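Tokens as discussed.
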């Protein structure tokens, strides 16, 4: 197993090195030619000379001499310049792009004035197209040039990842982030995504990435991974044809004969596998995004629906589709919002102080039935009643599934006894049920009317 692991790791390292050199290989470009175009720009961009040179190179991308071939070479070189910069240099590169390549208000005003003063209806279209052109920032035009390159989409995804990490500290990057997201929204369309199943026989590099990117329930070993890819355990992922070696998002599914109420049982390697053809329930127990730069771009809902469609075709016996989901914001909400809210605690019939309940979370396995009922009631209240400023569920995982048209099926006590499970949700997990005939109505009621669909056994917890 150790040899197998090392072999898989070596494959990944080789592929990563190939990806890092992707820009250099485009159009037969070589490092010396890139450096010749870049000149002596320092990696920190720490002086006005370097910034001026950078602005000049960006303008060369906008107005290239020599046609399309030169434009592509310039874009390749600009991309390699960005990749070669230090952390400080990248910040200054992004700031320069954000601040010096905005739209021209004067040009926009001029085109609007011309459009308003035009008296010939036949020329309206021309004025509209001229206005559209000046409304697009030079910055956006530079960014779009990367998309045509083989490694360009991944470059834009990674650049947005960099910007997302910096935008709270550097507010001037917000417009740049918005434009990057807009470009990605047009390219990461569900119709351009390829659904594939990951199996134990998949390439080693792909299995390594599954281990690397699993964000919900950490994969602890190769045997753990093999168990998750057994005959009654499935994994599906979306690929984009312009990023062929990188999964964008993946979901793990367990085929069972009941709705799972414990992640420890579901992932137990000693549990014998069952015949998937006899399963009547599909449990989605982990959804992980692999690309930070695609944050906020809806892929998970499409992935779940595509997988449900695929499973319904392949396994006619499966009638129930549900999740076993974490409740990541629960204890944080308890500590931050409920500690002093004695009025709410009184309405819920909770007489024990929230401080004592919080102190007992670390010893939940020995808690009394009384404390268990307290926490279940608080959790039900959190999922059903606590909303954000938009009127949506406060818990992000709850919002994701409810907006997809799911309903809350049941709360599960001690469903995740891992350190992470105890700390984020007092060990509780929740099942969201996807009833195919009710998905559209649930989605509309939640998104428009802010109504949360739930089973009676969940709503009754609040009344108990």
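Sequence:
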């Amino acid at each position: 197993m150790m040899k197998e692991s090392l072999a898989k790791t070596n494959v990944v390292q080789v592929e990563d090195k190939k990806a890092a050199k992707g820009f250099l290989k485009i159009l037969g470009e070589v490092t010396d030619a890139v450096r010749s175009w870049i000149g002596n720009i320092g990696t920190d961009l720490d002086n006005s000379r370097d910034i001026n040179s950078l602005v000049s190179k960006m303008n060369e991308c906008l107005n290239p001499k020599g046609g399309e071939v030169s434009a592509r070479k310039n874009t390749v070189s600009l991309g390699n310049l960005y990749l070669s910069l230090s952390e400080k240099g990248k910040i200054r590169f992004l700031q320069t792009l954000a601040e010096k390549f905005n739209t021209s208000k004067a040009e926009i005003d001029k085109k609007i004035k011309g459009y308003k003063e035009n008296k010939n209806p036949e020329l309206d279209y021309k004025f509209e197209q001229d206005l559209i052109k000046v409304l697009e920032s030079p910055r956006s035009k530079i960014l779009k040039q990367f998309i045509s390159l083989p490694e360009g989409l991944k470059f834009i995804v990674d650049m947005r990842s960099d910007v997302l990490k910096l935008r709270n500290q550097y507010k001037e990057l917000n417009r740049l982030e918005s434009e990057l997201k807009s470009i990605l929204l047009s390219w990461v369309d569900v119709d351009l995504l390829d659904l594939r199943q990951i199996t134990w026989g998949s390439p080693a590099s792909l299995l390594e990435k599954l281990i690397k990117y699993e964000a919900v329930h950490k994969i602890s070993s190769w045997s753990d991974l093999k168990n998750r890819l057994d005959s009654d355990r499935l994994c599906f992922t979306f690929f984009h044809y312009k990023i062929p070696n990188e999964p964008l998002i993946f979901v793990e599914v367990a085929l069972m004969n009941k709705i799972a109420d414990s992640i420890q049982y579901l992932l137990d390697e000693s549990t014998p596998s069952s015949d998937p053809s006899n399963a009547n329930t599909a449990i989605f127990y982990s959804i992980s995004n692999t690309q930070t730069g695609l944050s906020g771009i809806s892929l998970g809902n499409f992935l779940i629906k595509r997988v449900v469609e695929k499973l319904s075709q392949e396994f006619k016996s499966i009638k129930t589709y549900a999740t076993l989901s974490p409740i990541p914001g629960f204890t944080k909400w308890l500590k931050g919002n409920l500690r002093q809210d004695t009025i709410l605690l009184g309405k819920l019939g909770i007489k024990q102080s929230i401080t004592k309940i919080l102190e007992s979370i670390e010893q939940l396995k020995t808690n009394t039935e009384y404390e268990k009922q307290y926490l279940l009631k608080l959790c039900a209240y959190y999922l059903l009643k606590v909303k954000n400023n938009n009127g949506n569920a406060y818990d992000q995982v709850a919002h994701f599934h409810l907006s997809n048209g799911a309903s809350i099926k049941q709360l599960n006590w001690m469903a995740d006894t891992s350190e992470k499970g105890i700390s984020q949700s007092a060990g509780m997990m929740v099942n969201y049920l996807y009833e195919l005939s009710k998905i559209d109505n649930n989605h509309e009621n939640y998104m428009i009317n802010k109504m949360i669909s739930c089973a009676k056994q969940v709503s009754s917890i609040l009344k108990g």
